[in-house]
Design a protein that fits this description.
The protein is an alpha+beta fold. It folds into 2 domains: 21-152, NADH Oxidase, CATH 3.40.109.10; 160-277, NADH Oxidase, CATH 3.40.109.30. It has 9 helices and 11 strands. The chain has helices at 12-18, 32-44, 60-63, 87-104, 118-124, 148-157, 165-168, 187-194, 232-250, and strands at 2-5, 54-59, 75-82, 108-109, 131-132, 137-140, 169-171, 205-210, 213-218, 255-258, 270-277. Strands 1-10-11-9-8-7 form a 6-stranded mixed sheet. Strands 2, 3, 4, 5 and 6 form a 5-stranded antiparallel sheet that branches. The longest helix has 19 residues, at 232-250. The chain is globular and about 50 Å long. It binds flavin mononucleotide. The site of flavin mononucleotide (FMN) has 21 residues, from helix 9.
């Protein structure tokens, strides 16, 4: 696979820096025109895997949708994708673009992979054979203050923390940690990867810079099992690829997405793909 990455979203590095999961919402429902704008934008989203993702906005009461960790909003973004190789990564990429665009409209959200009544969401998305709905997200205007439960949850997951730059990114191979100074023009895109949301904040992405390429690898967390076709950490990887591409575009860098075969691999990590940078 060999694809030029042409993604752009105005002010994406600001959006990525300001982003956080929102679980407490104002009672005010997002206006129909805002929802329409978001869904229109959703139709234009592409990912480097070339797999289409369909987005819908769902009303909780209409479909019996429940999420025990959020409160205040009635609306959810749902989406679905055809099951195929790299569908989880493609989904992660496209849904993150969708949620960052929602953020640019003033809407907050949180990725939901586990804390919802999944079967009701899947029914609402009218999944056909060979389709899956990996995640959903409430959308609404963020409340001025987080609930006590949300604050406690963030603390338990250490949601505000990230691994050091040097623990995530490497120079030429996994034995040589990359410093932010050494990353040069790729410092900002890599910082954007570091700030990405991930399931239970596990941050499973690792990137090696070599030969003008950024090689993306998945370091799976222990005890983080895949469930059938769903692969949360591969979704995390798609989000990381999205953050990198958005910020690289903002920095004026041209990217080409490639999946090398055979990939420069290491035993503990899984190669997913690379950006060739020019
Ligand atoms: C694929 C994925 C699945 C997630 N699933 C849930 C979930 O089911 N419930 C939840 O409250 N948060 C969920 N999260 C949000 C993460 O806990 C959150 O992104 C992480 O703790 C970092 O916090 P931040 O987003 O505020 O930076 C999920 C995030 C991702 C990327």
């Amino acid at each position: 696979m060999n694809k030029t990455s042409t993604i752009s979203l105005p002010h994406s590095s600001d959006l990525i820096r300001a982003r956080r999961s929102v679980r407490s919402f104002e009672k005010r429902t997002p206006e129909a025109a805002v929802v329409e704008q978001l869904l229109d934008y959703g139709k234009s989203i592409k990912n480097p895997f070339g797999i289409p993702v369909e987005f819908r906005v769902l009303h909780a009461a209409q479909h019996g949708l429940l999420c025990p960790v959020t409160n205040g909003t009635e609306l959810y973004a749902g989406s679905k994708i055809a099951v195929q190789p790299f569908a989880n990564a493609a989904f992660g990429y496209s849904f993150e673009v969708f949620l960052l665009y929602a953020q640019s409209l003033g809407l907050g959200s949180v990725w939901l992979g586990g804390t919802m009544n999944r079967s009701a969401f899947e029914q609402a998305m009218e999944l056909r054979e060979n389709e899956m709905m990996p995640c959903a997200a409430p959308i609404g205007y963020p409340a001025k203050r987080m609930t006590v439960r949300e604050t406690a949850m963030r603390k338990a997951i250490k949601a505000d923390e990230r691994l050091p730059f040097e623990a995530l990114f490497f120079d030429s191979g996994f034995t040589k940690p990359l410093t932010p100074e050494k990353a040069g023009v790729l410092r900002l895109p890599l910082e954007a990867v570091r700030l990405a949301p991930s399931a239970v904040n596990k941050q499973p992405w690792r990137v090696v810079l070599a030969d003008g390429c950024a090689y993306f690898y998945l370091l799976r967390s222990k005890g983080f099992a895949r469930s059938g076709v769903l692969d949360m950490q591969m979704i995390d990887m798609g989000i990381a690829l999205c953050h990198f591409a958005l910020c690289a575009a903002e920095c004026g860098l041209a990217l080409e997405f490639v999946q090398l075969d055979p990939a420069p691999d290491s035993e503990e990590v899984e190669y997913v793909g690379s950006y060739r940078i020019s």
